[in-house]
Amino acid sequence: MPSWLARPGFQSAEDRIAALLQWLCLAALLVFIALPLAAIFIKAAEDRSGAYVGLSQIVQTVSEPRIQDAAWNSLQLAFATLALVLPAAFLFAFALTRSRIAGQPLLRLIALSPLLAPSLMPAISLVYLFGNQGLLKNWLGGASIYGPLGVVLGEAFYTFPHALLILTAALSVADARLYEAATAMGASPLRRMLTITLPNARYGLVSAATLVLTMVVTDFGVPKVIGGQTNLLALEAYKQVLGQQNFNRGAVIGLLLLLPALVSAIIERRVARRAQAAMNGRSVQYRAKSNLLRDALLMSACGVVSAFLLALAGVAIAAAFIKLWPYNMSFTLAHFDFDQQDGGGWRSFRNSLLLSGASALIGTLFIFLNAYLTEKQPAARSAAQLSRAIAMIPMAVPGMVLGLGYVLFFNAPANPLHGLYGGMVVLVVSCICHFYTTAHLTLTTSLRQIDGEIEAAARSLGRGWWVCCLRVTLPVVLPSMLNVFRYLFVSSMTTVSCVIFLYSPQTELASLAVLNMDDAGDTAAAAAMATLIFAGACAVSLLVNAIGWWCERRVQRWRAA
C-alpha cells in the first residue's frame, strides 16, 4: 500500500477510496492540461531538428516584421472591438437590471443567442450583406468588408454575449440605500452613475474588457473568413502549424497568444483584491422605478443592438434556404445536401453531436467528481490543492494554444498516448479541458453552499461518502450540473480554435466543415451547416431546460417548502 494511503487519517476504506480518486483526477488534469502546455514551452526552445536553442528562436521569431505586424494588428482590432462592445454591453445590461423596459426576457434571449452560433456565422452574414455581391454593399461607401472592418463587426457579435453576462451579474447587485441617499442629497442621475454605479461595477467592467480583448486576439474563425489580407497572430499560428508544418515557430506564436490572457488574468486579480462587496446583511435590494425618458432611451439602444445581432444571425440562416443570393431569392433545401459539398458531409454534423454529447456527459460527471472530492472529501490534501490550481489554468489559455499543445504532446512518437491523436477521444478531452474552469467554478460554488455538517452526519451514521453524495449532494446541485452540461454541449458544438489542429478526415466536425466549405467557395452550404449547428445547440438547450423544469417539480420539491 502506498505510504500516503497508510497514514492514520486514511485508515477507513472510504478515505482510501476518496484519496485514490483524487490522485487519479489530478493525474488526468496533469496529463491533459499541464503536460500539453509544457510541451509548447519545450518546443519553442528547440529548432526544427529538435536541438535545444534556448531563447534564440523566440527572439528571432518575435523580431520578424511580419510577426510584429500581426501582433500589432491583433491588438488594434481587439481594442477597436472593445470600444464597440463594452459600451453596448453595459447599456444592455443596465437596461436589463436597472430599468423597467418591456420585453426584458425576449431582449435577454436575443442578446445571448450568439452563444449558440459558431464564430464563423457572423462573418458569413457580413459577406452576404456587405460583400462583393452583398445586398447592402453600397452602404460602405467604397470601403471593403474584407479586412479590419469585417473582423471588428464579426468579433463584436461573437464577444457581446460574454461581456453582457459579466456586466449583468455586476449590475444585478446593488444597495438601494446608496441611491436613496444620493437622491436625497440632490445628486443628478449622471452623478449617481459616475459615483455609485460605475465604481461598484468596475470589477465587472475590467473582467468583461479583459475577456473581450483575449477572445478577439486569439479568435481564428472570423478573421479566417472575412479578414482578407489582414495579418493576425491567430492566422499566423494556423499557417505555421498546418500550412508549413513548422511546429517550433507555431509554438512561439502560441506563447505570444498566451500573453494577453496572462496579462488579463493579472489585471483582473489586482482589481479583484480591491473590489468591495456591494451588498451586506443590512443592504436593501435595488428595484428600478419607472422613468419614461430613461426607459425610452434604453429601449432604443437595446433595439439597435438587437437588430445588429438578429441581422448577423438571421441573414446566414436565411441564406441557407435561398437558391442563389442575391440573384435568385427562391426557397431551396439544396444547400443542405452536404454529400455534394466539400467539408465532410452529414458525417461532420453527426461527429459534432457525438463530440458535444460525450464532452457534456463525461465532462459534467468528471468535473463534479473532482469538485466534490476537492471541496467535500479532501482526503489527499496535496492532491486537492494541486487540482484547484490546475483547474484555473484553462481560464487563461486560449483554445488555439491548448490545441497546439495537444498536437505537440500527443503527436510525439515517444508518447505512449500517441495513438489517441486524430481520434474522437482527444477531441472530447480537449473540449472538456478548454472549458473546464467555468464548469469547475460553477459546481464548486454550488457545493460550497451545502453545509459540511451533512457529510459529518452521514459519517457518524456509518454511511459512505458516496451514499451521501448520491442521495443528498447530487440532488441539491442538480440545477448547476444541468447548466454545466448545457454549457459544455453548446461550447463544444460551436468551437473552432480548440479543435482546428486535432481532427482527421474521419473526425471532421461541423464547425470545421463551415470553415472548409467557405474556403472552397461553397458559402451557401457553409451557411446551411452553421444553421444546423445553431439549431442543434438551441434544441439541446431547450431540452435541458425542460429536464430542469421536470427535476424542479419532481426532485427539487424541497426548495418550495
Topology, element by element:
Elements: H1 13-44, H2 56-62, H3 65-97, H4 104-112, H5 120-130, H6 148-171, H7 176-184, H8 189-200, H9 202-218, H10 221-226, H11 233-243, H12 247-274, H13 292-319, E1 322-324, E2 328-331, H14 345-376, H15 381-391, H16 399-410, H17 424-434, H18 436-448, H19 453-460, H20 465-476, H21 478-494, H22 510-519, H23 523-554
Antiparallel strand pairs: 1-2
Number of strands: 2
Order of helices and strands: HHHHHHHHHHHHHEEHHHHHHHHHH
Using the CA coordinates, give the radius of gyration: 25 Å
Report the principal-axis shape: globular
User: Helical proportion?
Assistant: 55-70%
CATH superfamily of one domain: MetI-like
CATH topology type of one domain: MetI-like fold
| Mean pLDDT score | 83
Provide a compact summary of the structure.
By secondary structure, the protein is mainly α. The protein has helices spanning 13-44, 56-62, 65-97, 104-112, 120-130, 148-171, 176-184, 189-200, 202-218, 221-226, 233-243, 247-274, 292-319, 345-376, 381-391, 399-410, 424-434, 436-448, 453-460, 465-476, 478-494, 510-519, 523-554; strands spanning 322-324, 328-331. Strands 1-2 form a two-stranded antiparallel ribbon.
